[in-house]
Amino acid sequence: MRHDPIDVFYTYKSEFSSDNEPLSKIKGNEFDITLNIDRPYPPVLRRPAYPPSPRSREALEKHTQELIQLGVLRKIGHNLEVEVTTPVIISWHNDKSRMVGDFGALNTYKVPDRYPIPRIQETLTQLSKVKYITSMDWLKGFHQNFFDTQSQKRT
């Protein structure tokens, strides 16, 4: 039984991005970052930004503004509590830029997830019940994760 793709998109429109809502949350998956150390945190978790080149600074500003407009990032003031600072760099490939966070230090102190990647058998079991499988590039090929309120101070 074949369905018109337009009908499928219309029926499940809340599952797809739109001009009004270019990103949507992954249902039922807010990630949490639990650290295995107590405060005050070591200086390695409060690193200053890497000094970018003028070209990278311009790209960084562009990416930051775009992600703020999409609701992925938010501006914070100097007086707001931020537990961890994560430097970002601009990665260049074929004259195109990507903003990349350096979470190496944070990962050192994070309590590991027991199963950070879905088990293949569970995924296959869930896929056996689906009617449609699609593949889409979502915001430049990156997967956007949302963090719970407490963990946002650590990202």
UniProtKB/TrEMBL annotation:
Signal peptide coordinates: none
Stated name of the protein: Reverse transcriptase domain-containing protein
Source organism (scientific name): Austropuccinia psidii MF-1
